[in-house]
């Protein structure tokens, strides 16, 4: 059976371990409001006064209330997939994975971008209440703390893809990729080809995944007893232009590298263009490795050697966790990193003989 | 006020010109069912027998019924954005545009892929009913005829982006791009550079946009009094591999072209890779032009000369039309083509002197 409005409104108060703790009737009595009013708050309706909503949400939270565990066989109707920005080809990979799982379960995938702006995030939260979403998947999202609290009070199940830092909601399950191992694999590949001076273009340092890739790069150099040279690490922000600029900085060093490992595919494409403009060929004059394995880099010129992040699988897994949570099934493993994999194509080769 | 369930269920029967024609009570009487049953059908609920649903939908359709014109100031809660596949970077461009407009209006954007398979489309239709979506945007979608009829019967407003052929629902507004003018502009650019043998890699012939781009190419050749050579037109399917193969076929001609116009950016990237593998440089040995202006081609090597399709603006306009329709406002112009624009970058140059 597909959940109609009836099923979407059904709700019981449960403690975090899944046992029914209080009924909505008890919450209503304690708050001094009607049962339909509690139900309206539970379902994120807007026709409740702010004071009443705050009182009821506080009680729901204090009683460890968990929203609408659907009866067995019923299906949630909507999940929210939230990006900071919809400006990267990797967003579509994650959407594809989430949509595939949600679609099969009869659940719609609502895609939103909050643009790192408080106003847009606030609007999204209002919309989320209005549509009584059954769960939220945040992608590398740094929601402001006030919104974390609201999400927790709403009691909507939450999962996080590619956590930017500590999970914004402590109890939310997270799905990431083995960024450290991927950074190490890419660097080992270049070392095995004979490179010793390997440049690294970083991601934004506030993201955990950036730090993990950098540490993987350093660990591989260490293991090969190659001294790390701080000049060979230049900043980037995952976007192509920063790869273009970063590669330029590396080429301008008194002793430039013979290979560049960029912490994202998009920066690797920017780096390749910087090399082309200086008349340098990839891989004959310089090897380049990326990170992500976006579909388009199979067709870059040359096709890019990169570290595959299973973005679509990450989306699938997060969606499955969320659908489980919506049925009050705790995920078996709430902190998961899916394996990355080195994909060797045509942008890497042994260093040119000096 | 944000629409709660109450507003989402409110519905009146209207004729296509917006005048109230029959009430739900009259439909119920004529169908021999209760008013709540008609309401359940109108709202796509699943708890109605198939026979009753069919009878009621038939009556609603015969009376020119239009679903839920929201009261002024209320907002629709959800719109559905439907792709055949979520496998192309241009999908994210359209999603971005639709989401931006929907988000501002307090409306969630539900993204789905129906994979050109009847089963998935059927499941989507079931989900659509269950979530009582306020409108549907189809992207280049060839829904099977049975589903067109169901959509029409459901009375959900519909808009089509980049219509694949005749509009699947005759009265639905469409948003496209000036494909013919774009094909002409790309070809004129190559002619002005001095090219006379210009290869063309086609899109799928069943899509109107493919045909329009090809006709634009031919029109530009005609206008310049350059004889069209049928060997210079090779098939493709918009994906990179077909550009790779198509470029190979053009290069194998007894008299190969000096420039290639690919009807999509992804095919242009495939063509550039085919040239690289044969040791040919772009643009020194061969010029290449694409179509779309995906964000990534700013950073292809070399950056691609292409025809910009305003994909994100197309998404925005379709979303606006749909939100208008949901408020029973007919779009001022129901068939719109947004202007394409030639963007000259580094992949085109005069032909090499023989």
UniProtKB/TrEMBL annotation, chains A, B:
Keyword Lipoprotein: no
Pfam families: LacI, Peripla_BP_3
GO terms, molecular function: DNA binding
Residue ranges of coiled coil: none
Top-rank taxon, per record: Bacteria
Swiss-Prot/TrEMBL keywords: DNA-binding, Transcription, Transcription regulation
KW Iron-sulfur (keyword) present: no
Domain called HTH lacI-type: residue spans: 22-76
PANTHER family (alphabetical): LACI-RELATED TRANSCRIPTIONAL REPRESSOR, LACTOSE OPERON REPRESSOR
Name of protein: LacI family DNA-binding transcriptional regulator
Species assigned in the record: Streptomyces noboritoensis
